[in-house]
Structures
1.
Amino acid sequence: MANGLRRCTPPDVGIAPYGRCARGLPPAAQCSTLRPYTAFAMPPPPQPTTPAPPTADAAKIAAWAEAIRGGDSRALARGLSLVESGGPQAEALLKALFPHSGAAALIGVTGAPGAGKSTLVAELAAAYRHWGETVGILAVDPSSPFTHGAILGDRIRMQRHHADPGVFIRSMATRGCLGGLAAATSEAAWMLDAAGRRRILIETVGVGQDEVDIVQLADVTLLLLVPGMGDEVQALKAGVMEIADIFVINKADRGAERLEQELRAILGLAHREDGWRPPIIPTVATEAKGIAELQAAIGAYLDFLAAEGRGAARRRRRWRQQLERMLRDRAYQTWVAPRLGAEDWERLAGDIESRRRDPFTLAEEILRSPAGAPPPAGRAT
Ligand SMILES: Nc1nc2c(ncn2[C@@H]2O[C@H](COP(=O)(O)OP(=O)(O)OP(=O)(O)O)[C@@H](O)[C@H]2O)c(=O)[nH]1
Ligand SMILES: [Mg+2]
């Protein structure tokens, strides 16, 4: 985006590079339990400008949104590219589409590399198509810039759907910021939703904390395990078990019984707060076996969510998190980015490290300084 929120460097760089990505902030700054800083008054936010009269650009966006809603796949593809790179135009398009979203079921599919996610997603898509439902597929690869091969592999596995306008497939990759990717994925899903796709399948690798963001976008999450993963299953933390609403033992042609027993033993110990008992579904994705059962399990969970407003409560939680994240990004862009250049970070960190300055005073001074002014200089010792 113009304010550069989306594409960014990995969160582990520690210090956010100027003007690129608020999600590159040190983890503490991303933490929702951040203490409010009350020791000084925040500088006033920029004055809101009077809304501009409708322009040719606004008319273009409205027409674009209309085309997306009308099922124009090329308009949708261009819209998703815009969302990936971000920017005010992307926001304008998403704003126009937002009121028309909210009807789709978001189905997250996660699991270790090579577990068979893409093969399964392609089969699930075929099953939904069989029932006349429209499908959107987002293959999200948060791991690295070097995994385009995998995405290419996904494309090949999903090739059979390419001739079907009822299935829209999109790969999304990042060269860094996971938070950024999660936000872009969420926006892409809401665009597909507004475009009338009723089942949106989101494939992402891994079950690490970093991917949890992406997984949490989904209404229902499937975790794919494969036989021979017993040790990994033992190592799964209770929190990760909470993420999966349905466990899928794919590659069941290699014998699913042992893994199923181990999984049952672990699941027997963990009780979810909402009372849902995640089912375990064995599948052989390459032979389309177990897909109908999986589809039924997904349906059962969506029904469970629909009952007693559970789904609405969950979506509210998700929007709250998203709004919080958005506000954090914008506060950073408004107050920090205009005051610190890329080269300032290193120098200020050096000042702190050498004890010339303390970080509390420095933070206060930075926020008090007028935007664009040179940041506080380190005091000579
Ligand atoms: N034997 C067997 N092989 C399977 C099954 N499902 C998928 N495979 C194979 O497993 C390999 C990986 O499948 P993918 O669908 O690409 O797995 P993925 O999880 O999407 O992989 P990444 O996206 O690279 O993480 C392919 O060679 C598939 O043909 C299955 O049920 N049984
Ligand atoms: Mg894949």
2.
Amino acid sequence: MSDVRHRCEYCRRQVNQHKRADAVYCSPTCAARARDDRRRFARRLRNLRPCPTCGWVFAFRRSDAVYCSARCRVAAHRARHSNME
Ligand SMILES: [Zn+2]
Ligand SMILES: [Zn+2]
């Protein structure tokens, strides 16, 4: 076994040895926190999409929101209206 020092992937604390060779966290607490962070990040990415009017990519707070702002919603409405005429 090598005594190469590892760092916990979450808290970056140096650990002398991991209980398991494939462990990357210093403790179950760090492993759970890292998992929570990943889940939160994935959730944020899921809500990330472009506004159909201005193309700005941003995180929607409401899952049913379509436009980034009221201005874009109105602009899209106007564009739709003028296309019909
Ligand atoms: Zn840690
Ligand atoms: Zn927009």
